[in-house]
Design goal:
Blueprint (H helix, E strand, L loop, with lengths): L19 E3 L2 E4 L8 E2 L3 E6 L15 E6 L4 E2 L2 E2 L7 H18 L7 E3 L17 H4 L3 E5 L1 E3 L2 E8 L2 H10 L1 E2 L2 E2 L9 E7 L2 E2 L11 H8 L1 H24 L2 E13 L12 E3 L8 E5 L15 H13 L13 H19 L2
Antiparallel strand pairs: 1-2, 3-4, 4-5, 5-9, 6-7, 8-9, 10-16, 11-14, 11-15, 11-16, 12-13, 16-17, 16-18
Helix pairs in contact: 1-7, 4-5
């Protein structure tokens, strides 16, 4: 999520001014709220401060409204076919983790509410998304200045980390033992930051380069918190039969009434530990040395790879329409992850 989504005002959606919703899913939203932006999966708006509120009331400040659509992206391309119900599952999983992280005393988070009734009636009207469509998809959080570093933690060797390791024996400057296989568990989780790209791919970078961007003290704090969250969450998930192979976090500095950071420690923002931002593997079938079955987007990526290899798609927009079996298979995996993690 880019910083502008959390900062400035602009009326309406940046890219869409109508709601696209069918029986097969919610693709995009439109609300009469400022600050509207459409990301790969979420649409974001600003909930303006309510006058007459005590300073201790979160409603006395502008807040961020995030709506999780049923869009899905792969290889940085948004697919034209929705995964019906995915947005509600992502909202449920992320809210569960954000509350869990706070109860563990690891880190403050941006989460204030998931109640769609807190969206003011003035946000709705002819042609807009309805309140009913927002139910289960809504996250209301503190507005923040986003720290422009993706905080990636890897506990296992896969994806871009595996590619880097095969080339250099390192991942983002972290030296690893020789002879590791695909999907091997690492001796200990590693922190591998990346740049936050507004468009296209994020770039894996070293801790030193990240520190040069935002400061060494802040990066050390981000590394400590990211590793602590991952380690605690991975232990929790493993008890429920899920390996969290890797994941990414974002942090921000809460904004005050004047629109400037209030000071103090950053807080955890955006989605956390969902199948969109993590690799989830079933522990019962884990076997290093090969790719793992998954509860995340890997199933979709593998289907799209077959299209790319056959020349049917070149991994650039527009994405291909997804067949019903791929939609159903993706949703089945996301649902299983939600059921295991949140005891649905």
């Amino acid at each position: 999520m880019g910083g502008a989504a959390l900062g400035g005002y602009a009326w309406g959606m940046a890219h869409h001014n109508t709601t696209t919703a069918t029986d097969s899913g919610l693709l995009r939203t439109s609300l009469r709220l400022p600050g509207g932006r459409s990301g790969k999966v979420r649409d974001t708006y600003v909930l303006p401060a309510e006058t007459g509120r005590a300073k201790s009331d979160p409603r006395s400040l502008d807040r961020l409204l995030m709506v999780a659509s049923d869009r899905i992206s792969a290889f940085d391309v948004v697919m034209p076919t929705p995964i019906t119900g995915k947005g509600r599952l992502l909202t449920q999983i992320a809210a569960f983790w954000l509350r869990w992280i706070e109860t563990q005393g690891i880190c403050r988070t941006h989460l204030l509410s998931t109640d769609a009734s807190e969206v003011p009636a003035t946000a709705f009207g002819p042609g807009t998304t309805t309140r009913e469509q927002l139910e289960g998809r809504t996250t209301i959080g503190r507005r923040c200045r986003v720290i422009p570093i993706e905080c990636v933690v890897r506990g296992y060797l896969e994806g871009s980390g595996l590619k880097d390791y095969r080339k250099t024996g390192e991942v983002c400057g972290v030296k690893l033992p020789a002879g590791l296989r695909q999907c091997d568990r690492l001796p200990e989780p590693i922190f591998t930051p990346a740049t936050k790209a507004e468009e296209g791919h994020d770039e894996n970078i070293s801790f030193e380069r990240a520190a040069a961007e935002v400061g060494e003290t802040l990066m050390s704090w981000l590394r400590e918190k990211s590793l602590a969250i991952y380690s605690a969450a991975a232990a929790y998930a493993l008890q429920r039969g899920i390996i969290i192979a890797d994941t990414k976090f974002e942090f921000g500095l809460p904004l005050g009434a004047d629109g400037e950071p209030e000071g103090g420690e950053p807080i955890l923002i955006d989605e956390v530990l969902t199948p969109d931002s993590s690799r989830f593997w079933p522990a019962s079938s884990y076997e290093p040395g090969r790719a793992q079955p998954s509860f995340d987007k890997q199933y979709l990526r593998e289907y799209l790879e077959t299209l790319a290899q056959s020349g049917a798609w070149d991994k650039t927009p527009p994405g291909p329409e997804l067949p019903p079996e791929v939609v159903a298979g993706t949703m089945t995996r996301y649902t299983e992850a939600a059921n295991r993690l949140t005891d649905r």
